[in-house]
Specification:
single chain, 315 residues, MetI-like fold, 0% strand
Length: 315
């Protein structure tokens, strides 16, 4: 097609007829988009799948959850069923992980302990997520005197040792799952609140937040639909890393004797029970400790994978 040099100044009726002809099929590929358009989370998932260590860890956690659900249901043994004729046995077909000093099946107890430890870990992370996001978001968005007062409360909570909260809560509510969950959640949301506050402080001055305010959006709408949603990457990573921290805290409390009380089986109580016979029957200590280590390691790998997948600077 020959286009006149002065085509920009010519009237429409003087332009060549073929100037407005359909584009040939052979030339249409010049506008072809080579990369498929993806949403933020679809792109993050595609990059997360390339992290083999994170995917392996995710599969391990999924298998651990399934085993914790079904093995105690399908096993002929219970977590507290005693058989004094089968005490301190090694691994066998009847007891793959052996038995403890009361003849209780260690495999069932480990899987039952996974129910408690994982439930406490995920529940504590969920509570910390909700409290930390709401508290930190309000502090960062409102600012001023409200931010000053609320953050001073955070500083006070942060200055008190967590173990003191735990002891006081255990004295009031006793040694049970609720008291352990409450003790873990009392102060662990502080880090999430500080992180969300810092993110909101930097985002609320951006153009998109100002535009939402100009068109009349409410403060709650701007905070949760525009600001919080734009810092979901760090929030998700922080929440993922809260789970192993809560599991370790629960195991530590049970190990020192101020957590979940026996005969309920958690990984911490099992390690505490096996401590007295560590030199004679070390495998009784190995199984719960190995479960704690592998679970925490897997959750940390998942957190690292999410951090790389959700952070656009690490692409």
């Amino acid at each position: 097609m020959n286009i006149p040099e002065n085509a920009a100044t010519l009237p429409i009726h003087e332009l060549p007829d073929d100037l407005f002809a359909p584009l040939p099929e052979s030339e249409k590929d010049s506008e072809f988009v080579a990369m498929e358009s993806k949403t933020y989370f679809a792109d993050a998932w595609s990059r997360f799948r390339k992290n083999k260590l994170a995917i392996t860890s995710l599969v391990f956690i999924a298998l651990m959850i399934l085993a914790a659900i079904f093995i105690p249901m399908l096993s002929p043994y219970t977590y507290d069923g005693q058989d004094l004729m089968a005490r301190n046995q090694g691994s066998s077909l009847a007891h793959p992980f052996g038995t403890d000093k009361f003849g209780r099946d260690i495999l069932v107890r480990v899987m039952y302990g996974a129910r408690i430890s994982l439930s406490v870990g995920f529940a504590a992370a969920l509570l910390n997520l909700i409290i930390g996001v709401v508290y930190g978001g309000i502090c960062g968005y409102i600012g001023g005197r409200v931010d000053l007062i609320l953050m001073r409360i955070v500083d006070i909570l942060y200055s008190v040792p967590t173990l003191l909260y735990v002891i006081l809560i255990m004295l009031v509510f006793g040694s049970n799952i609720f008291s352990v969950l409450l003790a873990i959640s009392v102060s662990s949301w502080v880090g999430m609140a500080r992180q969300v506050r810092a993110q909101v402080l930097s985002l609320k001055e951006q153009e998109f937040a100002q535009a939402a305010f100009v068109i009349g959006a409410s403060r709650a709408h701007i905070l949760f639909k525009h600001l919080v949603i734009n810092c979901m990457g760090p929030i998700i990573v922080n929440t993922t890393l809260m789970v192993p921290s809560a599991i370790f805290t629960e195991a530590f409390l049970a190990f020192v004797g101020i957590g979940i009380s026996i005969p309920m089986a958690s990984w911490g109580t099992m390690a505490n029970d096996a401590r007295a016979q560590l030199m004679l029957y070390p495998m009784q200590m190995v199984w719960p400790v190995l479960a704690i280590c592998l679970t925490m390691l897997s959750l940390h790998f998942i957190g690292d994978g999410l951090s790389e997948a959700l952070d656009p600077r690490k692409r």
